[in-house]
Amino acid sequence: xERDFYRHPERFPGNADGPFYTTGYQLDDGTWCGDxxxxxxxxxxAPTLLSxxxxxxxxxxxxxxxxxxxxxxxACEAIDACCVGALRYGGRDPRILAKLPAASCDYRKPGxxxxxxxxxxxxxxxx
Length: 127
Ligand code: SF4
Hints:
This is Ferredoxin. The protein is α+β, with helices and mostly antiparallel strands. The chain contains four helices and four strands; from the N terminus they run E-E-E-H-H-E-H-H.
């Protein structure tokens, strides 16, 4: 899993270190409240990656980062499931960026110009 990822200032502190995360906000007493909580829909999409909703802790957050292609799919499905955009991807992997809406990502998908430059440079180095 990549080490270089965006550190969102509203990243919920319960999230495991890594590019998939949820957002929240800090209360006056210093505790955090997640932006996504209670309904359990994202947790159904990624049950082994997200904290289970309980009476004591209904916040949604990544207890671990995905490590397989199947888990990455689940993490992306959980991001899609959140109705307020509180599950996010802060990494730069173009394969993952391609699966997600731009609004859920901190970095942009490689655009046409970027792909063209890469293609040109890869052909030059092959000559
Ligand atoms: S998916 Fe939407 S309704 Fe469900 S807990 Fe998250 S923000 Fe609330």
